[in-house]
Structure to design on (341 residues):
């Protein structure tokens, strides 16, 4: 594939692809209908973890997540990442076996890790290498990095369609005002990827999966790391702010107040529901489209967790012509019907 690359979608995945491709020497244009990081990325819980056992086609990709963010942190100093570790309990009735990067800790250790817990559980899974990011802050930093390496950034530019040339290859993407030409187009536009693929005659089976995020006003230092139980995923994002990924605002607020000492005055500030992109089989879709040479797809859940790794690997494939084994189980062609003889 040519190193003349148009990346559609400036969420965290598209921003990562643009940064890594530009850093690799490609002439990159990053285009988005809105502002960088303003879509579903903005309301991500943004837990970064590689611990535990990760089976399945994207297992190796998921296992690389924290290492890839440490690499990115070294490349882009000041990246807003907090390496706080995570505690999980109560999601199963039996004590699980600790996976790679995890340990099973007792109530005394849990209380030392999260001192405001009213009733520390008898056991929890402690993953000290886990962390969390400011997803918008990281996206903006990736865009700045891409621009520093020569990328053109085109926000507030809706894409109408992907265009072919007369030889049946990608020609670029059409906006209301112009054709942005490119020998390679990377679709990293979340749920909009399906419609854009259709415009080029390529089926990308991805649809919206509701994801709810609650924001709370809370006392400073209420919790130290990422906390996960049967009621919520919870973390502190500022001195007086918590965010939670959960289902019900009323039940989540009640659970927070009853779980932590000093949480009686925690107050719900806002609720957001976004349609995160979910491939039909739940596995990331990352790779070229056989039907249209020059078209590449990068759409997935969990996008924030995988963005650092995926950006580097996609850039290796579209700029350097590599074939990355870690992406082997994530290809678009797995959805094609087998040929009958």
């Amino acid at each position: 594939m040519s190193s003349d690359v148009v990346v559609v979608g400036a969420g965290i995945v598209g921003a990562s692809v643009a940064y890594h491709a530009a850093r690799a020497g490609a002439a990159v244009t990053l285009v988005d209908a809105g502002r960088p990081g303003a879509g579903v990325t903005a309301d991500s819980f943004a837990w970064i973890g590689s611990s535990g056992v990760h089976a399945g086609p994207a297992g190796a990709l998921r296992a690389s997540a924290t290492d890839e963010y440490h690499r990115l942190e070294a490349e882009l100093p000041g990246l807003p990442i907090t390496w706080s570790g995570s505690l999980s309990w109560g999601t199963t009735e039996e004590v699980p076996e600790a996976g790679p990067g995890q340990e099973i800790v007792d109530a005394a250790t849990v209380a030392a890790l999260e001192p405001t817990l009213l009733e520390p559980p008898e056991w929890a899974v402690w993953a000290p290498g886990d962390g969390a990011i400011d997803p918008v802050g990281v996206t903006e930093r990736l865009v700045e990095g891409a621009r520093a390496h020569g990328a053109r950034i085109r926000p507030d530019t809706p894409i109408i369609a992907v265009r072919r040339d007369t030889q049946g290859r990608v020609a670029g993407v059409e906006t209301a005002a112009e054709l942005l030409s490119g020998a390679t187009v990377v679709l990293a536009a979340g749920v909009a990827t399906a419609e854009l693929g259709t415009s080029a005659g390529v089926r990308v089976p991805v649809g919206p999966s509701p994801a709810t995020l609650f924001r709370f006003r809370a006392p400073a230092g209420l919790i130290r790391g990422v906390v996960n139980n049967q009621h919520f995923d919870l973390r502190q994002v500022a001195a007086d702010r918590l965010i939670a990924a959960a289902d019900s605002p009323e039940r989540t607020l009640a659970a927070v107040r009853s779980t932590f000492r000093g949480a009686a005055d925690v107050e719900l500030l806002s609720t957001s529901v976004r349609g995160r992109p979910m491939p039909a089989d739940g596995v990331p879709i990352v790779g070229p489209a056989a039907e249209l040479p020059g078209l590449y797809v990068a759409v997935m859940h969990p996008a924030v967790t995988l963005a650092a790794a995926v950006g580097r690997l996609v850039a290796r494939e579209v700029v350097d012509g590599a074939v990355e084994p870690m992406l082997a189980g994530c290809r678009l062609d797995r959805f094609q019907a087998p040929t009958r003889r």
User: Anything to note?
Assistant: The chain has a mean pLDDT of 95. The longest helix spans residues 303-320.
